Amino acid sequence: METLKFKTTIKCSGCVANVTPFLNKTAGEDNWNVDTQSPDKVLTISSGDKVNETEVIKSIQEAGYKAEKIS
Length: 71
Description:
By secondary structure, this protein is of the alpha+beta class. The protein has helices spanning 13-27, 53-62; strands spanning 2-8, 32-35, 42-47, 67-70.
């Protein structure tokens, strides 16, 4: 299983609702979570399939937010 983490500007449950269709399409439904309590608003994607980190960042930007990969 692959796990990717991103620092984002997704701040609240309303933001999560806005980005949900974009992330479901890119990462797969139920394969991602945003910790809005974390200062870095960390998006974690865990998937058995290969997830393209560039596509994840692009889909978050399409939703109106920013993301950068955390190593």
